Amino acid sequence: MNRKKVKETNRETKEKYDILLNIIGASDSALIAFSGGVDSTLLAYAAAEALGRENTLCVTARALSFPDRELKDAREFCVEHGIPHEIIDFDELGVEGFAANPPDRCYLCKRALFSSFNNLAKTKGLVNVFEGSNSDDTKDYRPGMRAVSELGVISPLKEAGLTKEEIRSILREIGLPVWEKPPLACLSTRFAYGEEITAEKLIMVGKAEQYLFDKGCIQVRIRIHGTGSYTARIETLPELIEGLAKEPLRSEVESYLKSIGFTWVSLDLTGYITGSMNKALE
């Protein structure tokens, strides 16, 4: 891994990548909170470059809120690039207050999760814990960032001022196909605040999204609404809406989602919106 690979991006982005390497390099070693998504992949790649693989440990949390395909991607990336990787089990539903799904649910979860990461880092003799928030994340409601701050976890991408677009640009130039991977968010973000999160509903959402992903919906969210009887509100890219509404796909999707527990299936005509459940807080 060599920073010379990042040379064709614009000067500002190149400078930010150098800043990122310097921020990471100021630590002797680090545990990377690694989801396998766009941001944490660049963070892991840069950490291995700045610190060396022997001083870098990627850790992925296996949880109901984390899709199985993402766990697979995380594992394969680390194997391919020779970066040490561990998977830990995390019971988000066991975190006090989480299942009630309050507006600060993400804070409760991140507080428990990163406490586990901090403890693991100490056990492994690693100096710091890094996580993959970027500068764009400050523009949305992100209560989990409070937990990150309270626990002393470092966000190198954000400190370097890297935006999501710049991160994708760097990954594309490096030659990592993850640069075009759709945005990832934990499955708990599919629930309206105040509606209980259960294992049953998380599994339903995960199955429904995987089904649509396999059908070619590369960007999709299944927003779940209701208690007792559940509505699946499908958010996808505007250009994919017409295809989902046509036969035979329309009937196939409706049939499958009802077979796994949904009573009603709807297609959101607005299309996919990042953090759409936060609109209710406004």
Which key terms come to mind for this protein?
12% strand; 282 residues; globular; four-stranded parallel beta sheet; alpha/beta; three-stranded mixed beta sheet; 10 helices; GMP Synthetase, Chain A, domain 3; Rossmann fold
The CATH architecture of the largest domain would be 3-Layer(aba) Sandwich
CATH topology name of the largest domain:
Rossmann fold
Please state how the strands of the largest beta sheet are arranged side by side: 3-2-1-4
The structure class reads: alpha/beta
> If helices are DSSP runs of H or I spanning 4 or more residues, what is the number of helices?
10
Shape: globular
Total beta strands: 7
Name the CATH class of the largest domain. Answer: Alpha Beta
Distance between the termini: 44 Å
Largest sheet: 4 strands, parallel
Q: Low-confidence stretches at least 5 residues in length (pLDDT < 50)?
A: none
Strand proportion, as a percent range, falls in 5-15%
Counted up, domains total 2
Helix proportion of residues, in percent?
Answer: 40-55%
Average pLDDT value? Answer: 93
Query: Which superfamily, in CATH terms, is the homologous superfamily of the largest domain?
Result: HUPs
Order of helices and strands: HEHEHEHEHHHHEEHHE
Q: What is the alpha-carbon Rg in Å? A: 19 Å
Describe this entry's structure for a reader.
This protein folds into two domains: 3-180, HUPs (Rossmann fold, 3-Layer(aba) Sandwich), CATH 3.40.50.620; 187-281, GMP Synthetase, Chain A, domain 3 (2-Layer Sandwich). The protein contains ten helices and seven strands. It has helices at 11-25, 38-51, 68-81, 105-124, 144-150, 156-159, 164-174, 199-214, 238-245, 249-259; strands spanning 30-33, 56-62, 85-89, 128-130, 220-225, 231-236, 264-267. The chain has a four-stranded parallel sheet, sandwiched between helices. The protein has a three-stranded mixed sheet with strand order 5-6-7. Helix 3 links the parallel strand 2 and strand 3 (85-89). Helix 1 packs across helix 2. The model has no long low-confidence stretch (mean pLDDT 93).
